[in-house]
Design a protein that fits this description.
Keywords: Membrane, Nitrate assimilation, Transmembrane, Transmembrane helix. Pfam families: MFS_1. This protein has about 450 residues and is mostly helical. It has helices at about 25-40, 45-55, 60-75, 75-85, 90-105, 115-125, 130-140, 145-155, 160-175, 190-210, 220-225, 230-265, 265-285, 285-295, 295-315, 340-370, 375-405, 410-435, and strands at about 180, 185, 320-325, 330-335. A hairpin with a 3-residue loop joins strand 1 and strand 2 (about 185).
């Protein structure tokens, strides 16, 4: 296994490929479809409360509904990416959309907890559309536009907010009603609406996107497509994506409860405050793609990790003060610290901005290093990043239980970010040493040497 950081298949400086006709249609339809499927994937964040009340579920039972949806939306990303490279993103996206529409419709008619759990798992399949859409757009856009294109497509993450805005109003206004004699109101109408929207998008995608698709892996053996997964670099990118995407999914579900428990706000207010995290983490993804195109993906990742370390480093500090017991038996308090709601929201917003940039930067790496294997590599990176969103919430809960500090949530993110940044930096240092070993002895001058720096020693 190797972890060199020189992109494969790089083109000579100044070489610019033209964007194929039909690429913008692919980007537009894939982005809109992914936005809706992301909303479908995470819709149980809002539907969970009325579902819990109707079926009398415990908090633990309720948590598994969202968990199984997130799990199924992550575990098939690798095969979805490979199938996209071999058969085209148009076909794979259409299959995912139709399957998700049917599963979403079935949710509306669930009659018990077991049915809800199974159907939530099936609905979660919509989350795998990310890898398919990424590989699809990579095949249609030239290298100098891939960062922005993938960033714009990835901004479909904003779909996580859709149900938070439309759900409560529709649930309240349709409760107890029945439409066309078969469609129930209340929380059950939301999955029906998503079904209709998905089927409309299926029809539009059939007629709008080019029938003659582009397939990076057409005719290539499966073993050849899977070969890059043996490289350490791929697993390093996966860890980055756990930090910027897995943590995003986890916090999207975790923050409403955190706001209510620690700041005493209502559910509605907590949802709106959580939206100030979701929107920048999603909508800044195109900016992250542009930065990656202009400055390089590695610089974008340094910026991402630095901002996340600053924000999580402050957020992880528990409220409190130092108590000093004096010899005379008295006690004094010093260095009182407490973070209020407004500073907390601003720091979470800063972290969200960093995640939005970082999500695009991670996927900018992939077509640069693996131009013929975007589906397989992007699939693995997306799968592990999504699984991070499945694993992190329980980790947040266990660290809080162990430490007693609600802010331990951000301690977990701080440690995870620090490990990722350290691994990336060590890789860069090794790469520079391997490329320019003659500079190893020229970073420090011998004692007493005050001479001017020559061109040979400049770095």
């Amino acid at each position: 296994m190797t972890d060199s950081s020189q992109p494969a298949g790089t083109q000579p400086a100044g070489a610019m490929q033209e964007t194929p006709h039909g690429a913008n249609a692919v980007l537009t339809m894939s982005t809109i479809s992914f936005t809706v499927m992301f909303a479908v994937w995470l819709m149980f964040g809002i539907l969970g409360k009325p579902i819990q009340e109707e079926f009398g579920l415990t908090d633990s039972e309720l948590s598994w509904i969202s968990a199984v949806a997130i799990l199924n939306g992550s575990m098939w990303r690798l095969p979805a990416g490979i199938l996209t490279d071999r058969f085209g993103g148009r076909r794979v996206m259409l299959v995912i959309m139709v399957f998700s529409a049917v599963a979403s419709l079935a949710v509306s008619f669930a009659q018990n907890y077991a049915m809800i759990l199974v159907l939530a798992f099936l609905v979660g399949f919509a989350g795998n559309s990310f890898t398919s859409g990424t590989a699809w757009n990579s095949a249609w856009f030239p290298k100098h536009r891939q960062g922005f294109a993938l960033g714009l497509f990835g901004a479909g993450n904003v779909g996580a907010s859709a149900t938070k805005f439309i759900g409560p109003v529709l649930i309240a206004s349709t409760a107890g009603a029945t439409y066309f004699g078969v469609i129930p109101g209340g929380w059950r109408i939301i999955p029906v609406i998503y079904t209709v929207v998905l089927l409309v998008l299926v029809v539009l995608m059939v007629f709008v996107t080019p029938r003659q698709d582009r397939m990076a892996g057409q005719g290539r053996p499966l073993g050849e497509m899977m070969a890059p997964l043996r490289e350490v670099r791929v697993w390093r990118f996966s860890l980055y994506y756990v930090v910027v995407f897995g943590a995003y999914v986890a916090l999207s579900a975790w923050l409403p409860k955190y706001y209510m428990d620690n700041f005493g706000v209502s559910l509605g207010t907590a949802g709106l405050l959580t939206a100030t995290f979701i929107f920048p983490a999603s909508l800044l993804r195109p900016l992250g793609g542009w930065i990656s195109d202009a400055w390089g993906a590695r610089r974008a990742m340094y910026l991402t990790f630095a901002l996340m370390l600053v924000a999580s480093g402050v957020l992880m500090m528990p409220n409190g003060h130092i108590v000093i017991n004096h010899a005379d038996g008295s006690a004094t308090e010093h260095l009182a610290y407490e973070i209020g709601l407004v500073p907390f929201v601003l720091l979470v917003f800063l972290m969200a901005c960093a995640m939005g940039i970082g999500k695009a930067a991670v996927y900018k790496h992939i077509p640069e290093y693996f131009p013929q294997n975007v589906g397989a590599v992007g699939g693995l990176v997306g799968m592990l990043g999504g699984l991070g969103g499945f694993i992190l919430p329980p980790l947040f809960a266990y660290t809080k239980q162990w430490s007693g500090f609600p802010t331990s949530t951000f301690f977990v993110l701080f440690v995870l970010t620090a490990i990722s940044m350290a691994w990336m930096h060590l890789t860069v240092v090794r790469m520079l040493h391997a490329e320019s070993p003659e500079l190893a002895d020229h970073f420090e001058r011998p004692p007493g040497d005050t001479g001017a720096v020559t061109s040979e020693t400049q770095v």
